[in-house]
Write a structure and sequence with these properties.
By secondary structure, this protein is of the alpha/beta class. 37% of the residues lie in helices and 20% in strands. Helix 1 packs antiparallel against helix 2.
Length: 298
């Protein structure tokens, strides 16, 4: 399928698909409301397929890349759902490395997130991407079904699973003990929550377009944060919350950097969908690598 860009679609249609992905409207409602954009011989079904992820586009690092070794691992989570499975990617280079927890969007551990873990491994980090859907059978291989399963998970227990994964990774034999966390959409919100829960045990956090921590929780944040957000005029729900979050961080003298990517949509780093913004994604990625190198090494 031809790769399309966000600019190839009306913003209203992108927003409709965003609502569908986040469970705010049903598939049927999406088709009904999107029908007005089906013109010139283009069907709603074709539009729908064009907006869905194509994971063939996400593989920046091949699974058998000789620079890394990757495997699945299971982490015990007694305070959560019992255990959580995830994807562990490590450099083949000898020695210990800083660790990065990679947290998925609201559809589970899909190929895009696994590739992000491999990207970190090629940059000499040990990366673990836990699957929050473990308790309901794991990522089903399809984002639509992943979104359905996501809504079946006990949310508070899933958060405890992520906490367990963070602690396991920090203490991994190949880890230096310095821990960073990156997350996207839902995962970005989890990074903010982990910064609150883990305090100084987290060395750095980089949430991408994630829900902010609550004002009352901000004082408990110890880790420096690098916040990446889409254009507030396009990602209005999250965008409305950024000023208050920044004000709370400032008021509590927290170390943070805030980057807003003009013209970029929510999900701009995900290179499997039309919302991918290559310039914004590459800039945000390089900033994050530089940030983690600064905070997690030495």
């Amino acid at each position: 399928m031809e790769r399309k860009k966000a600019s190839d679609f009306p913003q209203e249609l992108l927003d409709l698909f965003h609502e569908y992905q986040h469970g705010e409207i049903t598939r049927r409602a999406f088709f009904e409301r999107a029908s007005k954009f089906a013109v010139g011989g283009v069907t709603v079904a074709t539009l729908f397929e064009s907006l869905k992820p194509n994971y063939a586009w996400a593989q920046q690092v091949k699974k058998d890349d000789p620079r890394i070794k990757a495997e699945y691992a299971t982490v015990e989570s007694p305070q959560g759902n019992g255990s959580i499975k995830g994807y562990l990617a490590q450099p083949t280079a000898a020695g210990k490395h800083p660790a990065v927890l990679v947290i998925h969007e609201n559809r589970g551990l899909n190929p895009y997130i696994e590739d992000v873990a491999r990207r970190f491994a090629t940059n000499n980090f040990i990366a673990f991407a836990p699957d929050g859907l473990t308790s309901v059978g794991g990522y089903p291989g399809d984002d639509e079904q992943g979104a359905v399963k996501f809504r079946q998970v006990n949310g508070p227990k899933m958060f405890e699973d992520f906490v367990a994964a963070a602690q396991w990774l920090k203490n991994h034999p190949q880890s230096t003990g310095k821990l960073g966390a990156i997350g996207f959409c839902f995962g970005g919100g989890i990074v903010n929550q982990l910064a609150v829960r883990l305090g100084p045990a987290l060395s750095a956090g980089a949430p991408f377009y994630g829900a902010p921590a609550g004002d009352a929780d901000v004082p408990r944040i110890a880790a420096p944060l690098m916040l990446h957000y889409a254009d507030p005029t396009k990602d209005t729900g999250i965008g409305q919350r950024i000023p208050a979050y920044e004000a709370a961080l400032k008021a509590n003298n927290k170390k943070y950097q805030l980057f807003i990517y003009d013209g970029a949509n929510h999900g701009f780093h995900n290179d499997t969908t039309p919302r991918y913004d290559e310039a914004a994604a590459k800039l945000a990625w390089q900033r994050t690598l530089d940030f983690f190198n600064q905070q997690l090494r030495g």
